[in-house]
Amino acid sequence: MTDPSRAVLEIRDLTLRFPTYRGAVHAVNGASIRVNAGESVGIVGESGSAKSVTSLMAMRLLPEGGFEVMGGSVALCGRDILTASEKEMVKIRGRDVAMIFQEPLTALNPTRRIGQQMLEVIRLHRDLSAREARDLAIRLLGDMRIADPEQVLRRYPFELSGGMRQRVLIGLAFSCEPKLIVADEATTALDVTVQRQVLHLLRAKATLLGTAILFITHDLAVASQFCDRLYVMYAGAVVEEGPTAAVLGAPAHPYTQALLNALPERVAPGELLRSVAGSVPDLTVELSGCPFAPRCAQASAVCERRPALIPTGSDGHRAACWLAARVVQ
Amino acid sequence: MSFVSVIRKRVIFLVLVVFGVSLITFAISHMIPGDPARLVAGDRASDEIVTSIRQQMGLDRPLPEQYWRYLTGILRGDLGISLRTNRPVIEDIVAFFPASLELALVALLIATLTGAPLGVLSAVYRDRPIDHVVRTLAVVGISTPAFWLGLILIVTFYGALGVLPGGGRIDPNLPIPRRVTGFYLIDSLAAGDPAAFGSTIRHLILPAFCLGFIHLGVVARQIRSAMLDELQQDYVRTARANGIAKWRVIFGHALPNALIPSVTVLGLALGDLLYGAVLTETVFAWPGMGAYVVNSIQSLDFPAVMGFSVVVSFAYVLVNLAVDLIYMTIDPRITGIH
Amino acid sequence: MAATVGPVAGGPTAASDWGFLFYRIRKSPLTVLGILMILTVLVFVAFAPWLATHDPNAINLKVRLAAPSGAHWFGTDEVGRDLYSRVVFGGRLSVGVGFFVVVIAGGVGAVVGCLSGIIGGRVDTVLMRIMDVVLSVPALVVIMALAAALGPSLFNAMLAMAIVRIPFYVRLARGQALVIREMPYVKGAIIFGASDWQVLRWHVSRNAMPPLIVQATLDLGGAILMASALSFIGLGAQQPTAEWGAMVSTGRNFILDQWWYSAFPGFAILFTATGFNLLGDGVRDLLDPRQKRR
């Protein structure tokens, strides 16, 4: 059940940059993302679109002092993340919001047993005895369809396959029944068949508990199958958003259209694959005008003014393109 | 890689090393001008006496045979007789070794207890001021001539301030504790002699600090390097994402993992300390192997020098082996197949 | 090095390697400090006759063991020689020894190691076993023994140090040669008939250099320390040579009353070694592929 009135994650107009030796990198440029309770939301975009950075802000996991927030707000279940103290953040991470990363092979401490690592996190957030925590861990692993969980608890990470490890991590993410789980390319490193399994498990358990999921992915197929709503990001800005079917079925922004066109499935055998001309903009320069204009076949003079997100008619479907405005009119 | 195969490789290497060391020192000792037999006999001895001594020492035999006799002697534990002390070299070494080991261990303790935390800080606050301070300190440490530092310490704490002794292992007025292990710290406790214990500690402070200061740099750099590697690993990010506080991740996860590869370096440091003690012992009149070998070299007492080389090389390989085995036990990636 | 598509705003391009190098160096204050320290030392080494205040060997029994003063900045030794001037001239010996050891050991080691790596096979394996064994022997002892056997003098100490260090460079160079040998451009050269020696000269030596140079820079400090240690024990420079280690050793006899005798030469050793070690560290960090800069 999704509840549009209760936003689990609300990022408003976030502008963020990284000061580096070569000048600041304007990583996020006025992005707004909203995830409601129980929803399954996806952020798609290519590397460098800042989709990961934006999601890391949900639990403020960027290195302290390594980033500067130039504007906007981030709220988790109504709590302001940007002004919270580190002590408060430590309590939130893993308990109210959990994150699953891309590389299961290296995500666990190689010198500790699985059980040890799971229990450490569980007992950190919940007041359980060792036995109770262990029972919980076994149950969590069981929910992830891991056979013989007691055995797995005794093992070291290197003894498990990538898919198994990811399931352990997902199970652990659910240990405190968080309101939001952020899955950052969580299945990209897995085999295709394992991918599907893992995603189904994740989705099933989230539905059961009413947990919202924020999927970060560059895989449009995953997005179409597992997300209710989608955000398309480019150069640190949201260029299109809306219900998945609308965004992928009737893309209003040239970038989304180009992405879909570039899919190998869209091309007949023998035809050349279509790619998007040009390259990602240099983020050390502040954004002016529409970020996609240099690569857009339909760009014109008006694109020198950066468009806001304009509704395209169907509910919630918006695109940051002057062309979309014309469609509406 | 199993324990057995590692041990086997090392044992073979050990044999080769003993062989090589003995060969090298044998070759060198036969390069010196002068006649060892005459050295033993003295300038005023007659030629007949020198000849008979030469015969006794086996110096009239062809070189390869001399070497063979020497090599087989080593295998029996006979390293020859010191020209200076007239005792079997092996006895000399056994007598002086504990002093050096005691000093080296205390120095290693000092170096590790101060160097490790500094290395952690240096890694966590990489490129910030504290990192630069620690790194500079580390470089200064390894660039310090041990003999000079020792002298400065003596001048300051003994000469000017008069708070610490200027040399030796124990107050010359106190009886040496009865030898159980050769470590005065242990022996004085075993004999129930607090005065001796206190005096031993007072005498250990300056030389151990001198030696330890130099190795503090080695430890800090190693820990820093290992910690930098660990802090970049994904599991650190996972731990933080799961709500584990920063310092708990650093000391509870990153540091233990960083210590695993560091064990090998720390083990080797022990070897370096033993032979770095050469200079420190000379300055502090510490009756250990370092002082022994310096005296031997200055008096061209080659049996002693050769014996020392063989023993130290042997010990070095042995320490390497122990360190490798320890490494294998503590890293579950290598041992833990259930 | 791959060329970038165009200039990156605000920073040096990869196309100007030297510019990039200096940029990186500037970013590392410790390396800069090391370079400054070395330059200071080199200035004294080069301009010793002008920077010294007295003749380092001039005996003046009227001012024996004098404390530091306006006339004698570091005081005088037991026969009245000015210690400051002796320290200044001593720098020539120490720095000279350092370079000698590193150049000889590095040069010989590099050639032997590279050749061994290129030739490969049984020769290479046997040679490496020998090197491993030799490296297990405690260097200090062999150096001392060798120096004692050859007769105590600074030159013999230098020679002993260089000889003992060679196996280290042999192994290093051989490791590099092994990697480079497998590179496509080398295999191409061999197919076209290049002999082992030509391969060595053209390809291997050029590409094996960087780690060897890094190691050599790191070794300089160590060589200077070791040389002074040998002189301290009496195996290196002999009286009346103004060598830092020897001066510390002589000063030891007067340490309690005339502390300056040992203090200043020893500090000179510390300063010089620190400078070279800082530089060596900086050079190594620069070439470290693990450097992850945001």
Can you describe what's shown?
The complex is a heterotrimer of chains A (329), B (338) and C (294). Helix content of chain A is 31%, strand content 25%. With 329 residues, chain A is α/β, with parallel strands linked by helices. Chain A has an 8-stranded mixed β-sheet with strand order 6-7-8-3-9-10-12-11. A 4-stranded antiparallel β-sheet of chain A has the order 2-1-4-5, with no helix packed on it. Chain B is 77% helix and 0% strand. The mean pLDDT of chain B is 83. By secondary structure, chain C is mainly α. Classes of the chains: A alpha/beta (329), B mainly alpha (338), C mainly alpha (294). Chains in contact: A-B, A-C, B-C. Chains B and C meet through helix 1, helix 6, helix 7, helix 11 and helix 12 of B and helix 2, helix 5, helix 6, helix 9 and helix 10 of C.
What's the oligomerization state? heterotrimer
Radius of gyration of chain B: 24 Å
- Please give the number of β-strands of chain C: 0
Overall helicity of chain B:
over 70%
Major sheet attributes of chain B: none
DSSP summary: helix tally of chain B: 14
Poorly predicted runs of 5 or more residues of chain B: none
Distance between the termini of chain C: 20 Å
What is the count of DSSP helices of chain C, taking H or I runs of 4+ residues? Answer: 11
Mass-distribution shape of chain B: globular
SSE arrangement of chain C, N to C? HHHHHHHHHHH
Q: What portion of the residues of chain B fall into strands of 2 or more residues?
A: under 5%
Rg on CA atoms of chain C, Å? 23 Å
Supply the helix-strand structural class of chain B: mainly alpha
Largest interface: B-C, 51 and 51 residues
